[in-house]
Design goal:
With about 190 residues, the chain is mostly helical. It is built from seven helices and no strands.
């Protein structure tokens, strides 16, 4: 499983290591929030922003490292792949942490999560006032009440969507992390 142009094995690529490191940090943060009994912070906008920033930092770090290793061969497609590997691994570890917390560590955490989500949604509805019909608000609240946040099937099924949503920024990040040099093999204008 090596890239023919570069001879680099997929398992030796920095993207895998940086994805693991990023995921491990998110894993530890979630366990720390649970241990310190501040699980509600997991659903705060500041946590979401921090988590996204951490993922993008891992993507950039991996891209820059691979660009240094591969030089002119680190094109846009490789930069996209590098970022995608980071996201898949990091979000996989994040989902694993929630699987463990909800199903092995504390089975009552699912109900606690549901009450946090209901409370946050109610506050959001207060903030928007009458901009949304009451019927729609009731439907959303009922959907949250019926949800099972710790359900392994739902957590695993949500993994690709998390990768996709966070991956939307990969198209921009890859432009920045790719090599801007032209490899000698593609420099046909200067060849005689």
């Amino acid at each position: 499983m090596s890239d023919e142009k570069t001879g680099l094995n997929l398992w030796k690529r920095p993207a895998l290591t940086h994805g693991f490191l990023t995921g491990a940090v998110i894993f530890m943060i979630k366990f720390t929030l649970y241990t310190l009994e501040h699980w509600e912070l997991r659903f705060a906008p500041s946590y979401q922003f921090f988590s996204f920033g951490l993922l993008m930092l891992g993507v950039i770090w991996a891209g820059v490292t691979e660009r240094r290793m591969l030089g002119a061969h680190f094109r846009y497609a490789q930069a996209l792949l590098s970022g995608l590997v980071v996201l898949i691994v990091a979000i996989g570890l994040s989902v694993t942490s929630e699987l463990l917390l909800y199903n092995a560590v504390d089975t009552s955490l699912s109900e606690q999560t549901k009450s946090i989500m209901l409370e946050n949604t109610a506050k959001g509805f207060e903030a928007i006032g009458s901009a949304m019909p009451d019927k729609s608000k009731d439907e959303i609240m009922q959907a949250i009440e019926k949800s099972e946040p710790g359900n392994p099937v739902e957590l695993i099924a949500g993994w690709p969507m998390q990768v996709l949503l966070n991956g939307l920024f990969l198209f921009l990040v890859a432009l920045w992390t790719r090599s801007k040099e032209t490899p000698a093999s593609q420099d046909w204008l200067s060849s005689e």
